[in-house]
Design a protein that fits this description.
Elements (H helix, E strand, L loop, with lengths): L5 H16 L3 H11 L4 H22 L1 H9 L21 H11 L9 E6 L7 E6 L2 H15 L8 E5 L2 H6 L3 H10 L2 E5 L5 H14 L3 E5 H13 L9 E5 L7 H9 L2 E8 L3 E6 L6 E3 L4 E7 L8 E7 L10 E7 L15 E2 L4 E2 L3 E3 L5 E3 H8 L5 E10 L2 E8 L5 H15 L4 E6 L14 E3 L18
Parallel strand pairs: 3-4, 3-5, 5-6, 6-7, 17-20, 18-19
Antiparallel strand pairs: 1-2, 7-8, 8-9, 9-13, 10-11, 11-12, 12-14, 15-16, 17-18
Helix pairs in contact: 2-6, 3-4, 10-11
The chain binds zinc ion.
């Protein structure tokens, strides 16, 4: 099957497989391809209709939400507008950990839902349930958003992906076959990459020549650096779908120059799959709005106009996530018009996880990715990572270049002091390397202070479907 032409996979194998594993997929995809061109008012009307259905269900079937909705005075009543929804408090990760069992819908049997969980670097993973049926619409969303980058079922696709959890979930014989023959993936696990792994990956890419790559953003950047260092110039992609990590300014151009294609930034997570992604015009990330109601909640300690990303999954009923504070920081695009004709709301690039922010005195938050950017053009600084020891003590780990010396350290202090504003002492620690997380992701900020230790790497996770 690995030699079947693309059209055969697209027109025959993929549809047949989806009939077996995802019977709702074809209809969902047809709907998503139509509704993406609705007007903004029509999209909001569709969201309100779906939201009311979800709230009615949650009130009737989930003890936790019955209490919450009653306290907010909403009960099982129809909301007149999306604005009225804001009376409901936000749902934090802690709420889910404490009330998970009471959030389950009583009219769902075990066989109609699938247990899923997010990774937790501090040993407290978050468990939640996804309707079996919901995986059909998740797949349909993913296929639609892949299509904006030109990538269709049947196309070979390179994949730089970490996530231990995916490996555990996809360990079976059938999953292996599916990845190879159906999804046609040329994968590399980014959890622990040695130089020889890059070489094997390059060999595999030369064999299949995929036109697309889906990648953890910082892994794609590392791969590009490796190719440049080795003067390899024949690994090219038409489209690079970067996800799961922040895309820093400058990295888009760097990737496009190295691989010769266009970057399509994407935002997703394990809880709700694809949240938003760029279309062919790259004016921001269009929200998957028929499936998800996304809000940006203001936070006085975050640099405006950014706020906390809040998500309601309109199509998941076995364990509803309603006004779920996902732990990322984002903002709306200033311009909500896109020449593609889709009125799906536009997010600006995601600024990072809440845990990517240093928390200084008075709760002031400073973005780790932004601080990293401040020092990223220094030639003697190969890589950095911020360690928050306490509210007023920050250590900067530095992988030094050959000419690193006292002047470099002084320059680092000078540049960073502008942002730390005298609120934290800065120590510099030289290290040989900065390992990725076991999940394959790069961490801008490691929080070693007790008050923040509950933070996890649970968000900004990639979403395959
Ligand atoms: Zn667009």
């Amino acid at each position: 099957m690995s030699t079947l032409p693309e059209w055969a996979i697209r027109k025959l194998v993929f549809p047949l497989w989806s009939l077996r594993d995802h019977p709702g997929y074809r209809g969902d995809l047809r709907d998503f391809l139509r509704t993406q061109f609705l007007s903004r008012a029509q999209i909001e009307a569709l969201q309100l209709e779906r939201l009311n259905k979800l709230l009615k269900h949650a009130y009737a079937q989930c003890p936790f939400y019955r209490r919450r909705l009653a306290e907010a005075g909403i009960n099982g009543d129809r909301l007149p507008s999306l604005d009225a929804f804001k009376a409901l408090p936000l749902l934090g990760k802690r709420d889910i950990q404490d009330n998970g069992a009471e959030m389950l819908a009583t009219d769902f049997s075990e066989s109609d839902r699938v247990r899923n969980q997010t990774g937790g670097s501090t040993g407290s993973p978050l468990q939640f349930y996804v309707d079996k049926r919901r995986f059909d619409s998740r797949l349909a969303s993913t296929v639609r958003h892949n299509g904006w980058a030109g990538y269709q079922p049947g196309d070979w696709c390179a994949e730089l992906w970490g996530a231990r959890l995916d490996e555990v979930a996809g360990r079976g014989w059938w999953d292996g076959c599916r990845n190879r023959f159906l999804y046609r993936l040329v994968p590399l696990n980014t959890s622990l990459i040695r130089p020889e792994d890059w070489d094997l990956f390059i060999t595999a890419l030369r064999k299949r020549r995929p036109r697309f790559i889906v990648a953890y953003t910082q892994s794609a950047v590392l791969f590009a650096h490796y190719l440049r260092e080795k003067r390899v110039d024949d690994i090219r992609f038409e489209s690079l779908i970067t996800t799961a990590e922040v895309l820093l300014p400058g990295q888009r151009e760097f990737l496009q120059e190295t691989f010769g294609g266009r970057v399509f930034n994407r935002y997703g997570c394990r809880e709700v799959s694809v949240i938003a992604s760029e279309c062919e015009h790259h004016r921001g990330l269009h929200v998957n709005a028929e499936a998800l109601l996304v809000e940006i909640a203001a936070d006085p300690y975050l640099p405006a106009p950014g706020g906390k990303v809040v998500i309601t999954d309109l199509l998941n009923f076995s364990m509803p996530l309603i006004r779920y504070e996902i732990g990322d920081v984002g903002q709306w695009s200033e311009n909500q018009e896109c020449p593609c004709g889709r009125a799906l709301p536009l997010l600006a690039d995601i600024q990072g996880r809440i845990t990517d922010f240093l928390v200084l005195s008075h709760g002031l938050k400073v973005s780790g990715p932004s601080l990293t950017l401040v020092v990223s053009d220094m030639p003697d600084v190969r890589q950095v990572q911020f360690i928050q020891k306490s509210g007023d003590e920050v250590t900067l780990r530095v992988v030094p270049g050959h000419a690193y010396g006292p002047e470099t350290a002084a320059e680092l202090r000078k540049r960073l002091s502008l942002y730390l504003k005298g609120l934290a002492r800065l120590q510099i620690e030289l290290v040989e390397s900065i390992p990725s997380l076991a999940s394959g992701k790069y961490r801008f900020v490691v929080n070693e202070s007790e008050s923040q230790a509950a933070g996890t790497e649970a968000t900004l996770e990639g979403a395959r479907a």
